Amino acid sequence: xxxxxxxxxxLELDRDGLERFFVETLDEKRFRAHQVxxxxxxxHVTTFDEMTDLGKxxxxxxxxxxEIIVPNVLxxxxxxxxxHKWLLGMDGGNAIETVYIxxxxxxxxxxxxxxxxxxxxxxxxxxxxxxxxxxxxxEIIGQVWAAGRHLGNVPHRERRLTNVVMMGxxxxxxxxxxxxxxxxxxxxxxxxxxANKRVTLSTAGLVPMIDRxxxxxxxxxxxSLHAPFDDLRNELVPLNKKYDIATLMDACVRYAQRKKGESxxxxxxxxxxxxxxPEHARALSKLMRxxxxxxxxxxxxxxxxxPFNPFPGTRYERSSSDDIRAFQKVLNNAGxxxxxxxxxxxxxxxxxxQLKGQVLDRTRRQAEHAKRLKAQEGGVxxxx
Length: 384
Ligand code: SF4
What we know:
Layout: E1 8-9, H1 15-25, H2 30-41, H3 56-65, E2 66-67, E3 72-78, E4 84-89, E5 95-103, E6 106-110, E7 114-116, E8 131-134, H4 137-151, E9 163-166, H5 176-187, E10 199-203, H6 207-216, E11 220-224, H7 230-236, H8 245-257, E12 264-270, H9 278-295, E13 301-307, H10 321-333, H11 358-376
Parallel strand pairs: 1-2, 6-9, 9-10, 10-11, 11-12, 12-13
Antiparallel strand pairs: 3-4, 4-5, 5-6, 7-8
Helix pairs in contact: 1-2, 4-5, 6-8, 8-9, 9-10
The protein binds iron/sulfur cluster.
């Protein structure tokens, strides 16, 4: 062991990584890794001293070579409807949001994968921030840890967190390795013990990575579709210019076919006069029915209808209730299950599409102001 090495943040590691760390770095038995994993994720313990079933010598060794760094909760707020939002501080002024949405018999946590996003979907509030950086595994699983601690979640016993959706800030497949590792802790009995189908990854349609996900993980897939025609989707989700709807649907079919009974959820945000007309509903129904036919399962395609949540500066508006109902009716008549997602946490800006790190905005404005001042003073590198 090299004492000069930086300490390993154990939140960065899934079961495999933790076992390797114990065996190769600490020269300890594999099962010790399992004990520590339970202390961290089941009991929310972050100091080795509290891990009372480990010997004194091992605790001292851990102290020397490892640490448990969890996200810093900058702010948290509960909504009247039970929705809860945390603003978590990452390094140097970066902040991300995590939202908990309780519903009949389930508690869903919406987790972020990046600070900002590079994909520039025109109806998305996160996109207006631009892309800052990928989150580490520790920062992704740390969101589950922080929410779990706050909610008093005990995997296998007091389960408050029953589902995780990788649907917060960022495109999770652009941060593949860290996201897959974090999802492995979510699904591990020594982690959060969630069934594979209760962890959902939502993508804008990064086709090669959907295929890689099919090989390397086993979670539910959701696709942000939002339009049934390529010209419209090119405008709403610019990634469509690279992977058009037909290419994306092929990848979804491959994903569903890898396992019997697998469905894929298609998210469709309804925007007034943009994508909410009967011709859109009919074309969407056809796409979904084709998907069912190819997967050979009558309800393989699930559609989630999401009324658009306006945010400052957006050019889009929410569809009218009548148009939403009419759209849903077309899908239902085609035999599709298409619930309309209820807007939650409105009073705390936690509703979908409002995941905007306001602290990030503020710190970015401050940084820009400081740069401008420096430039005025003739400082070098003001544009870096
Ligand atoms: S909708 Fe998702 S993929 Fe598109 S810009 Fe927003 S966070 Fe990124």
